[in-house]
From TrEMBL:
The lineage of its organism: Eukaryota, Metazoa, Chordata, Craniata, Vertebrata. InterPro entries: 3Beta_OHSteriod_DH/Estase, Lipid_A_modif_metabolic_enz, NAD(P)-bd_dom_sf. One of its GO terms (biological process) is steroid biosynthetic process. Residues 1-33 are annotated as: Disordered. This is Short chain dehydrogenase/reductase family 42E, member 2.
Length: 416
């Protein structure tokens, strides 16, 4: 399995037919075709990984609840199925060499509040994937985890796999992080499970920060839409706050290398291991997002407000969202965990272990390029203040008053 040199971003699929067939290095005889399943393969990372692998000659099954929004590459097959559906997994995992498990729910926005679905997908789905890997004698499983399994809102500077423990389960910032942490541990515990008829299941986990790249769907369009509604007039948190990001191509590279490092040819070096994966750079989020404001033609957030105000605003928005859910959908602009964690608190990680053991060598990419692609694909015209801006201003004012009242009464949430 090798990543396609043409790159794995969704659009790269269009010239997939030109990818060279995979050959044995020693003899130039065609190697047996590998078959992999990517759960969550309709999503951004899963589709990118599947397309890259297919272009290098691997037979790929993309398994997802929802259809991919990009055209399938030759060599990929899409199966619309739920990762919690045992029968569907049994059929899909037949004759498979490696499963990349990245189906997940609840990462951002309103999804973050859907506790039952988060639990059953992230924990229940992972249990099911492990069980069926064993049953169908799949020898390798790579799980896409997240840095959130060790980041619970307390600063981490240049953390590594040995020095930073899991966040205690009851102290996670949100249900998504808690369930991803359980799934991360379940996957690592499954390493070494004997397979029926001989062989062993080898597993590893990759822990990326936020993903960016061309046609990324989860973060960039959401932030851009907030900017266009002029909801990002405010900045909060310390200017020294740092975090990592990972370009989708670097993350695809890491997945391919991790799967190879679970084979005998690589001495099973990744067996039972976790790896932080990022671009190898630490940035401040507001500086990082500067190209987005610039290319959309809006000024950058210039009103500095206390993090405590934004946190209380997030509480109000979450409650308004939950109260109105039976009538209409009003997704919170920011959730509590987004405010108290990623944006306001430094959390950066070393990638030395991935470099040394996997041979991971992140390429240099720029967020501005992803923004350029986004701007080209959308009409970005400045508009006047929307109703939501007024709502946000009112909520911020209310949060400020609440913060003041809590301060005076001596009752303070931990973030204040
Ligand atoms: N996007 C990020 O910034 C980020 C950061 C850290 C970790 N991750 C992890 O990377 C992985 C991929 O993220 P992504 O950005 O491609 O997200 P994504 O939302 O684009 O993809 C996830 C996919 O999982 C699918 N899915 C959800 N529930 C399912 C179910 N029950 N059965 C089958 N499919 C189901 C969704 O339909 C979706 O297509 C996830 O595991 C996520 O937790 C993402």
């Amino acid at each position: 399995m090798q990543p396609s040199p043409a790159g794995p971003s969704p659009e790269a699929c269009k010239d997939a037919g030109q990818a060279p067939p995979q050959k044995s290095e020693a003899t130039s005889v065609q190697a047996p075709r590998q078959k992999v399943v990517v759960t969550g393969g309709g999503g951004y990372l899963g589709f990118s990984l599947g397309s890259s692998l297919a272009k290098s000659g691997t037979s790929v099954v993309l398994l997802d609840l929802r259809k991919p929004q990009w055209e399938l590459c030759p060599g990929t097959e899409f199966i619309q199925a739920d990762v919690r559906d045992e029968d569907a997994l049994v059929r899909a995992f037949e004759g498979v060499d490696c499963v990349f498990h990245m189906a997940s729910h609840g990462m951002s926005g309103a999804e973050k509040l859907q506790k039952e679905q988060i639990e059953s997908t992230n924990v229940g789905g992972t249990k099911r994937v492990i069980e069926v890997c064993v049953r169908q004698r799949v020898p390798r499983l790579v799980y896409t985890s997240t840095v959130n399994v060790v980041f619970g809102g307390r600063p981490i500077e240049q953390g590594d796999e040995d020095s930073v423990p899991y966040v205690p389960l009851e102290k996670h910032m949100d249900h998504y992080s808690r369930t991803k942490a359980i799934a991360d541990q379940l996957t690592l515990m499954a390493n070494g499970t004997p397979l029926p008829g001989g062989g062993t299941l080898r597993t590893c986990v990759l822990r990326p920060p936020g993903i960016y790249g061309p046609e990324e769907q989860r973060h960039l369009p959401r932030v851009a839409s907030h900017i266009k509604k002029r909801l990002f007039l405010f900045r909060f948190g310390d200017r020294g706050t740092r975090m990592n990001w990972v370009h989708v191509r670097n993350l695809v590279q890491a997945h391919v290398l991790a799967a190879e490092a679970l084979t005998a040819a690589r001495g099973y070096v990744a067996s039972g291991q976790a790896y932080y994966i990022n671009d190898g750079e630490s940035v401040n989020i507001f500086e990082w997002m500067a190209p987005l404001f610039e290319k959309l033609g809006y000024s950058q957030p210039w009103i500095q407000v206390p993090t405590s105000w934004v946190y209380l605003t997030a509480i109000l928005m979450e409650n308004v969202h939950l109260a109105l859910r039976p009538i209409c959908s009003l997704p919170p602009l920011l959730t509590r965990s987004e405010v108290s964690g990623p944006v306001a608190v430094t959390h950066t990680f070393r990638i030395a272990k991935a470099r040394a053991q996997l041979g991971y060598a992140p390429g240099k990419f720029s967020f501005a390029d992803a923004v350029e692609r986004y701007v080209q694909s959308t009409a970005a015209r400045p508009r006047g203040p929307a109703a939501r801006t007024r709502l946000l201003l009112a909520l911020l004012l209310l949060a400020g008053l609440l913060a003041l009242a809590l301060h005076v009464s001596g009752l303070r949430p931990s973030v204040l």
